[in-house]
Amino acid sequence: MLLSKYGISFIHNDRGGNILLTALLLLVIVVPVMNLMIPETSALHMSTYTVTLLGKYLCYAILAIALDLVWGYCGILSLGHGAFFALGGYAMGMYLMRQIGDRGVYGNPELPDFMVFLNWQELPWYWSGFDMFWFAAIMVVLVPGLLAYVFGWLAFRSRVTGVYLSIITQALTFALMLAFFRNEMGFGGNNGLTDFKDILGFNLQSDNTRVALFIITTAILALAYIASRYIVNSKLGRVVVAIRDAENRARFIGYKVESYKLWIFVFSAALAGIAGALYVPQVGIINPGEFSPLNSIELVVWVAVGGRSTLYGAVVGAFVVNYAKTYFTGVFPELWLFGLGAIFIIVTIFLPKGIIGLIEKLKQTEVKEPKNESA
Amino acid sequence: MLSKLFKIVFLISSLVVSSVTFAEDIIGNSFDDLVPQLTTNSYKQKEQIIEVLSTVDDDRVLGVFKEMLEGRLHYYKEDKRIVFIKEKDEAYEITDVITNDVIGQVDKYDIKKVSVNNTLRGMLRARIAKLSLKNKNPETRLSAVFQIISDLDEEAVALLREREGMESDADVLDAIKTGLAIVDVQSKDKTKRLNAIALLKESLLREAKQALDALVKKDESGQYLEQDAEIRKLAQSAISTIESRREVSAFAETVFFGLSLGSVLLLSAIGLAITFGVMGVINMAHGELMMLGAYTTYMIQNLFPGSLEYSLILSIPAAFVVSGLFGIAIERGIIKHLYGRPLETLLATFGVSLILQQLVRTTISAQNVIVSTPAWMSGSLQINPVLSITYNRLYIIIFSLMLFGVLLYVLKKSVLGLQVRAVSQNRSMAKAMGVRSDWVDALTFGLGSGIAGIAGVALSQLTNVGPNLGQSYIIDSFMVVVFGGVGNLWGTLVGAMSLGVVNKFLEPWSGAVLAKILVLVFIILFIQKRPRGLFPQKGRGVEN
């Protein structure tokens, strides 16, 4: 609560956002110092494991913002956003795979290990170009964006809405998962892409690279937040909210509902792709499991827990749920699914506005009863 | 003392046996006399024993021959008893051939194989076939005939001819005639050959087609091996008849597999068609309710281990009750609070599904459990040599259709059905007419969930029963409901069956996984084209 009063004002009239950005700024200063400058013997030292873990959460936060844009602001409950995340991750993974060069187990300079293992003679055409970082970076945005464009164009034009849309997005990610599990696809099948060595010439295992990745991820989360906030505050954002609340009315007033939905859907997918691309070098693996429908639906719960249509709520949700997941799967592994299931139920029934909604409600009672300090 | 005495006795008796060996002669002509003499090292003597044994009218002879051919006939070194062996973790369990008593487990060094050479093997095969031909059971005779046909030689032909005159069973007689025709097409007598071709035309046996193929073969210079043009022409037409009949059979098999898959889809989707289609509630825990049904089957089997045959039948109502009660609990506890918020319902029920999965993992086991199949469900119905239908799949097709019929009846004719339809069409009007809509909601949901439980019983007979059983079906069943058209049970039936059949027709050229992907992509595209499925609901209420 201290920060809310003293937080730096980055964006006019967005207190939650300012708190978030201040927190990110603190994080980006404190974490590198604690990891690199404070000696390991000190209690204040932060292990590289923790840095990577935080980096992972930050990627999830970007993904959560992407989902909040379409679900919170446009009312499209996508159960397949994990697919865009995974596609972005695969694009980055392919670049990292090409960077291994002849340092693989088989030492083949042209082919990744799994292709040698499968007796492939040459690189499939869709792998060409991925040895260049700029190309991979474009693909990170382009591939999820294109899939979202084609899928959204078909879906929104024929006015598939509500639960139908949710179910076919789930089918989409399920189909992609099955496809990526196939060895013939040329993406490493079951094992996915892993054993990465370096990125742009920097060793992925070194602390410095880890910290640099962390800083980049934080910066991109901040940028993603600012861009998303800008979009939802713009006229386009207002129309999107109008579509969420009364699609037919917006249509009858004369807005091209399909184009607005498509635009926000594609932007969100591209953002999810970027999150995936930042995720892969930090965790060091991408496999078809990322496409599993469970991942996508878990993502929905992050946003629900944090609080829909606030953007910063999505970030809070991503951190809270994933921290809980890390904690419980470490301490009581068999309890985690009970906990996750309970979160789904409690949030939908009792906390429709998530943590942010709860805080605001408590603050309102605080105003009514000034003596109550518990908030 | 006693054992020592025994040893001496055995020593003497084995001396007697070895003296017999020198004599190159065999003693006696009964099963009990002959079998112990198989311990001899002389193959010639073994041949004689087999020859005599095959004339002995004893049911045990066939078994001994079969085991001997497989190299599983041994003798116990200690007392030279001839035994059957059965491998049992590292050791062997041996059974006395003559008395059929289990002697016990022995080390492999305690027994010695009754060795066979190729002459003996050939002999044994012929004798086995001959003996099987005389077996009282027509099915054994039929498989013996097929066995003989697969390896025809003069002796076998003689056997078949001999049997042809005595055979009473029509199927076996047909098979014998086909076998003889395979030989007769090469005979000198033209009428015989023509008759044989006509006979082979009716057969789907691989050997029959091979025999016909031989008639239309060309040699290296492009000349027909067969001189008679008429025979060639007839053989050619017979081959194309067989080929088209084979295609029909293959087609029928694919359709059957498709319907079988379709009926599984129908079973898993039909409960969903009620909760989602009629009530408009997205129940992501539907798959887990199926899983509970499968686990109920497992529990019931464990409760009544002796009566496997009936426990499956008993599981059906039990699973209906278990899953139905869980369903009602879910409806009363969670969904009730979320009517009119379909996306939230989806998330909350997904939470329920996670909890149910974990519940099974912690209370029963994280591993798959074994659900046995009763005897009347295993095995298959052999329609012709290339087409066989497994009973479990056949029963599940029938069962799913029956369930569909019952459900249709309940919804169309019963009071509950009437009230369900009334509430789903216009809730406030139904309430005004005195329908207790909250009770109807709970009961409908319970019905849909109970059906899911029954589907679980059926699935337990087809796939592994584990905590993840439900997850693998949930997306498919939603696809079926959406494809068929929400709120329409007939749509679900047509949707399930057509998706199942299409999937199975795609599989041969694309592989199972790709076929599934293609079907999913097809449905995704289909929904874009017809957002309300194959049989959309019509009327004013639709837009809500």
What this model shows, in words?
The complex is a heterodimer of chains A (375) and B (544). With 375 residues, chain A is mainly α. Helices cover 69% and strands 2% of the residues of chain A. Chain A is built from 15 helices and 4 strands. In chain A, the strands form 2 sheets. A two-stranded antiparallel sheet of chain A has the order 1-4. In chain A, strand 2 and strand 3 form a beta hairpin. The N and C termini of chain A lie close together (9 Å). The mean pLDDT of chain A is 89. By secondary structure, chain B is α+β, with helices and mostly antiparallel strands. Chain B is built from 21 helices and 7 strands. A 5-stranded antiparallel beta sheet of chain B has the order 4-3-2-1-5. In chain B, strands 6-7 form a two-stranded antiparallel sheet. In chain B, helix 5 runs antiparallel to helix 6, helix 8 packs across helix 9 and helix 11 crosses helix 19. The longest helix of chain B is centred in the middle third of the chain and has 50 residues. The C terminus of chain B is likely disordered.
